[in-house]
Amino acid sequence: MTPQAAWHDRYDRHAAGYARELDPTFAGSVERVVELAAARRGVQLLDLATGTGAIAHLAAARGASVVGVDASTGMLEVARTRSPGLDLSLANACALPFADGAFDVVTCGLALSHFAERDRALAEVLRILRPGGMLVASAWAEGSSFPTTGVGDILDRYAGHAPTTVDEETWADRRRGRTVLREAGFVEISVRTEAFAGEFADAQQALDWFVAWPLTAARLTQLHPPARERFLDDARKLLATKRLAWTFVFNFYVARSAPRPRE
Fold first, then answer.
1. pLDDT tier at 1 (50, 70, 90 boundaries)?
2. For a Cys staple, 218 with which of 10, 70, 246, 255, CB 3.0–4.6 Å?
């Protein structure tokens, strides 16, 4: 299995947990993306890397004509179950099956960091946007606080250290993120940073959130049952000592394709 296929397999297998545990904590950021996209009747919107379809669902509810694409069949199955009326399909971000200039807006929630061929994916976004069309994307920013900090170190003791497979650093840095978009060919680039806060009900809910991340869930399933139980027990003990409030900080990038040249 290629690294990319292995990545998709993890998301396929753990999509339901993502929807159940993670999606509720991202509701504020989803709403902000849809607001910045000005989703409304008459807007043709593509939700790129739609995942469980949260952004696509809300944009459609506000009247936009929405298409959602993702490279994970498992995530799309969850999205179809939750939003059976949406137009959802399997697609590679580097080879989108749409005509040039087909969309007014492309949204992308927390997925710019996931594209192995980032520049090709951004070129495809520009291709399918109409002149003057808009990209709205969210990304993790610096300053987030997680009550689960330290649980990853415990997992590393049992499962070994996992290499970094996503590029969160580029998009967490507003200047670097703007530079990438500018060099890709976008114009009128802006970034706003916003924090969203909440609190887990108890240590078990915090632990369920931590292990719902597909890459983490995949590591956990690879442990032998006794080691898995020891990890879970150690993690619960650590979380029982912590305040369970969380703050997630995101950068929201808004950028446009070049307008049509004046004749």
1. very low
2. 10
The identity of residue 162, as a single letter, is: A
Rounded CA-CA distance 13/143 in Å is: 30
Note whether residue 230 is domain-resident.
no
Cα dihedral: 123, 127, 133, 135 (round 10): -30
Q: How many whole angstroms separate alpha carbon 11 and alpha carbon 214?
A: 5
138-191: per-residue pLDDT in tens? Answer: 999 999 999 999 999 999 999 998 877 789 999 999 999 999 999 999 999 999
**Does residue 107 sit within a domain?**
yes
Percent of the chain with pLDDT over 70: 96
- Work out how many domains the chain is built from and give that number: 1
Structure-block tokens of residue 181 = 């978009």
Give the separation between CA 123 and CA 9, rounded to whole angstroms: 26
CATH of the domain at 26: 3.40.50.150
